[in-house]
Amino acid sequence: MKQVDPFALSDTEFDAVMTEIDNELRHRSDRIVGREMLGLLEFCAKFKITLHNTHPTTKRITSWFERMYGDRLAIGYAFGTSVVSVKGELCRIRGLLFYGSMPLVCSPGLVGIKLQQETPHGPIKVSNLAEDEHVQGLTQEMAKRLTPDECAEIVKAYGRMFLTFSRMQFALGKRYKGTDAPFIQEAIHDLHVSADSLLASPPNYGGSNWASLQAVEKTIKSCIREKNVIPKKSHDLAGLCSTAVAAGVPAVDPALISAVQCSASVRYDSALVSKNQAVEAHYAAMTICGELASVVKRTDGQSDVFDYEFHTAGGPIRGLLLGHRSARPPSSGSTAPDKAL
Q1: Which pLDDT belongs to residue 338?
Q2: Alpha-helical runs (H) found in 2-110
């Protein structure tokens, strides 16, 4: 049988391959957001190759999906969403889907300057949260007034959001011919609602706190189910945690549980929860869900956050290095795109 060169496919051959891959992805899930990244993974698995994000074939694949679906690839939350306080006002943090490595900083002094990190595979972009689209509502005027502590808080909030949503996505294996962990898709939705309620006009702090509780409750119950135990129908997070620990699930910091726990009455009277309480509940829920996601993991995906420094003439700028590796059922043995530093 003739060996097919994936790097020398004619336009007709390439379109046929991509159409087949797209049909398979559609059969698994009707979700369009981020489908170009899944298509890239499928192409690599089909031809048993590795592609860097800057490779011409990578761009050919993503361009095919962009022509096919346009803006629908980016509609919705894409990867994850959270909030951060800037000058006392809450801004949305929106995570953009990527695979490989992404260094990021938050530096008002570097706004307008193209930042790149040299790697063995070539230069890659360094995201500056002081000007990039990741922090919505952060105007140029506000960005240039950021203090070092505020910049550090923005970076921290982004790293928390990234770890939580990437790890929870690894518990969803249905899109990769596997199975989804129970309740995790719904818990992800609750985390989005928690952030949206904080940013609504007017904000719904009680609704946000309740959504945070629901996200944690579903995640804990998913972990309990993973241990072949039926969880009680209860909103008592401490009690559910006790059941989970008895079943072999790692313990959760009681202080985090306390920050999330609230009465069902907050659904009817948002004023029962303050802004600070709702934000702390959101952050605590993100941390808990991210920590417990490994218990119900359904794929071989990996994500990490490391301390990072971007060196300039004026000295190093501290930030984070995010690492995001492919998500596939552990038994697939497929090769994934990589763009490691």
Answers
A1: 33
A2: 11-28, 35-47, 56-69
